[in-house]
Write a structure and sequence with these properties.
By secondary structure, the chain is of the alpha/beta class. It has two domains: 11-47, no CATH class; 66-245, 3-Layer(aba) Sandwich (Rossmann fold), CATH 3.40.50. It is built from nine helices and eight strands. Strands 3, 4, 5, 6, 7 and 8 form a six-stranded parallel β-sheet that branches. Helix 7 links the parallel strand 6 (177-185) and strand 7. Helix 7 (187-200) runs parallel beside helix 8. Residues 68-232 form the Isochorismatase-like domain. Keywords: Hydrolase. Pfam families: Isochorismatase.
């Protein structure tokens, strides 16, 4: 049974306070109170739900904020209406995303691919990569810059958002990720909605403006302005992404090295 709590100490209080001097009142065990002793006042809420309520790691836990790079829809054939314009806009972006992915891997930070499934759910992610990287496919030149590595993760998404009806949220929780860097295409559709959904899940979000593309520069800039102004999302360029070597990743590697040395010692 939880110990009784005291209200009225000047800290952020509950939605209801005692009628009299709150110092003389205590919440009874199991959270029950006599309704007659309480009266409603203007509701006061915390700015954020507790981490236990959201399922995400607490930003106040002292744990280093772990980041993940999310690469959206870059495994692509560009064989749709407007695809040629989007392909042109994506060409300068792809090498930057590839470079950012290498930085994340070097820091042992997760790289996650969130991609539409162009195979009508008849194949996996490896099949999707192969179908988009083949000779003569419009998106092959893009795929070569952002080829996934064995340690990377992937999520196949059915709609625009990387979170809708996909395991992405569960994956990020398991990885203890609190901040996502969203890159890819298109800035005014899948990137916008994925970044919004990450923000709604109380993740910190950055969308590097030089790592996203849309069919036109105007469409990209409108989407970035909306993310920045409406949701406070960081849209500065990839150079501003700050990475610290992942302690968990270093610990696993160090532990594995010690085990190998111990096994080699007679």
């Amino acid at each position: 049974m939880a110990p009784p709590l005291q209200t009225g100490c000047g800290r952020p209080c509950m939605d209801w306070i005692p009628r009299g001097d709150c110092r003389n009142w205590r919440i009874l065990a199991a959270g029950t109170v006599k309704a007659a002793l309480w009266k409603p006042v203007g509701l006061r809420f915390h700015a954020r739900l507790p981490a236990a309520a959201t399922g995400w790691p607490s930003p106040h836990s002292g744990e280093r904020m772990r980041q993940a790079l999310l690469i959206v829809d870059m495994i692509n054939r560009f064989d749709f209406e407007g695809g040629a314009a989007l392909l042109r806009a994506t060409r300068p972006v792809a090498p930057r995303i590839g470079a950012l992915a290498r930085r994340f891997r070097a820091a042992s930070a997760p790289v996650v691919y969130g991609n539409d499934n162009f195979l009508d759910w008849r194949g996996g992610f490896a099949d999707l990569v192969a179908s988009c990287a083949g000779e003569g496919v419009g998106g092959a030149e893009i795929v070569r810059h952002v080829l996934p590595e064995a340690r990377d993760r992937f999520v196949l998404k059915p709609r625009h958002s990387g979170f809708l009806d996909s395991p992405l949220e569960l994956l990020l929780r398991q990885l203890r990720v609190r901040r996502v860097v969203v890159t890819g295409i298109a800035a005014d559709s899948c990137i916008l909605i994925t970044a919004h959904d990450a923000h709604m899940r109380q993740l910190q979000v950055q969308v590097p403006r030089d790592c996203v593309a849309a069919q036109t520069v105007a469409r990209r800039d409108r989407a970035l302005a909306l993310m920045r102004d409406a949701f406070g999302i960081d849209v500065r360029g990839a150079r501003t992404v700050r990475l610290v070597a992942d302690a968990a990743g270093r610990g696993r590697g160090a532990g594995a090295g010690r085990r190998r040395r111990n096994q080699a010692t007679p």
